[in-house]
Amino acid sequence: MAKADNLLAVLWLLRSRRRVTAAQIAESLEISVRTAYRYIDALSASGVPVVAESGPDGGYSLPESFRTAPLFFETLELVSLFQASLFAEQAGYPHSAALESALAKVRRNISPDQASDLERHTTGFVVVPSRRGGPVEPWLPELERAVAKEQTLELLYAKPNGEEPEQRVVDPYGLVYRAGLWYVQGFCHIRQALRDFRVDRLCAVRQTGASFRRPADYRPTGEYDDHWIEERLRQGELTLVRLTGDPPAITALCEHWYLSRCLVERRGKMAVFRIDPTGLQHTAAQLASLGAAVTIVEPISLRRAVAEILNRWLAHHQQDP
Question: What H or E segment, with its residue span, contains residue 195?
Fold first, then answer.
């Protein structure tokens, strides 16, 4: 065990017992009594108010007023903590104020040498935000609390095609950050199925007063998406989509965050997907953006959906502004 870990272990022994002797510390940590004395001295030197009492009932203790334990970090642990916070900040982390407060406490309790090392490692480390869509900050804290407390929510959810927002009652199982976007993932009472809702498309979030129990096998990760798609494949509920086109365009579709999980086969200029029928409209918009670079072999319904999107775009842009 590293010295820093042993120091923290000694500290927790002091906090958990009214009084502890060097021999008891040595036995608990499987170290020598002499080493235990050195750790006590190191804690005292770092500012921990260790009280030493002599005599048959003597030992070491902490005053009742001492409640906050100092943190012992290796330099690389400190660096990783602060660098990871940059990713959280750019992702729109829902508790950014609490995170900043925690990091400020850490900064106040590190040595000058560690502070200097931390400055060197974080000055040249930049995370460029990849967030797309609308603002998510108003909703993330409330969504995170609902996920943690297993509270059912009523969402007013905007559609990408500009139609009137829909009301959905959702049991939020988890929050997922994927490809620069936040999603609340859970059971939709209207669709009676698991669904993802983009947080930046939320117009309102309201507590219903109801609660739910999250399924034990729920996994709020990419593995969850794969498992869901595989289950739908077994049930025969997915639509076969066959495409041909320019290799760069086909590659872009095969690397799309959703379509990549639906990919069945890819050969040169051809790709085959199995897609949830509820996702065909989103797929149609994706294909329309590629223009003539992609041809839809099947299904015909998807080809018509793309044509309808393009006709709406054409009519819109032909209007006199």
Answer: strand 193-198
Q: With 0.85 as the threshold, say if the pTM is over it.
A: no
- CA atoms of 268 and 180, how far apart (whole Å): 29
Q: What is the largest CA-CA distance in the chain?
A: 96
3-state secondary structure of 10: helix
3-state secondary structure of 242: strand
DSSP class per residue in 42-67: HHHHTT---EEE-STT-EEE--TT--
Q: What is the pLDDT of residues 175-222, one digit of tens each?
A: 888 767 788 999 999 888 888 888 888 999 999 999 999 988 887 654
Distance, CA of 172 to CA of 192 (rounded, Å): 13
Describe the chain by its helix, strand, coil percentages, rounded to 5: 45, 25, 30
- CA dihedral sign of residues 55, 56, 61, 65: negative
- Tell the residue number behind the tokens 């008891």, with chain if given: 24
